[in-house]
Amino acid sequence: MDIYVKNMVCPRCISxxxxxxxxxxxxxxxxxxxxxxxxxxxxxxxxxxLDQELLSAGFVRIDDRKKxxxxxxxxxxxxxxxxxxxxKEKLSERLRQELQLDYKHLSxxxxxxxxxxxxxxxxxxxxxxxxxxxxxDELSLKEIAFxxxxxxxxxxxxxxxxxxxxxxxxxxxxxxRKSLDQI
Length: 183
Known about the structure:
By secondary structure, the chain is α+β, with helices and mostly antiparallel strands. It folds into two domains: 2-62, Alpha-Beta Plaits, CATH 3.30.70.100; 65-183, Arc Repressor Mutant, subunit A, CATH 1.10.10. It contains nine helices and four strands. The protein has helices at residues 11-23, 44-56, 65-81, 91-99, 103-114, 118-136, 141-147, 153-164, 168-174; strands at 2-6, 28-32, 35-38, 60-62. Helix 3 (65-81) runs parallel beside helix 6 and helix 6 crosses helix 8. The chain starts with a strand and ends in a 9-residue tail after the last helix. The model has no long low-confidence stretch (mean pLDDT 91). Keywords: DNA-binding, Transcription, Transcription regulation. It holds the Pfam family HTH_18. Residues 75-174 form the HTH araC/xylS-type domain. This is Transcriptional regulator, AraC family.
């Protein structure tokens, strides 16, 4: 049985959901960002109990197909941006291949559900990742631009300022980050 879950944005979220499933004594095949595969179908009592425990941990089960698809898109973007998977191809092609749906359809559904484009969501996540890398103070801006796939340090700086209202150096002085589930 497939279950889609909102707000799973990191490996700790996967661990938290695995813990919930173990406490609920629900055998599962796999848990990935936003997706659980259970070994059996839940009865009504199990379903309600799982929903309550997920909610208490900050997660929400998604039943609507469009919302499930949107969450899948978000999770692919999170994996790409936060370095869990390589980003060797265009985002539109990656989404099309992984979800086996036309990008125009994916884009329409995503915009309908979230009120923003896939590209804007992707840029916001890239900028949040850049903020994280800046706050670590281990890489130069040029190295961050290269690591994040920007064509130049200047392009990254311009996009950063457009999104945050600050230059990267101004940000470094004030460090302000959002949690990933708030994006």
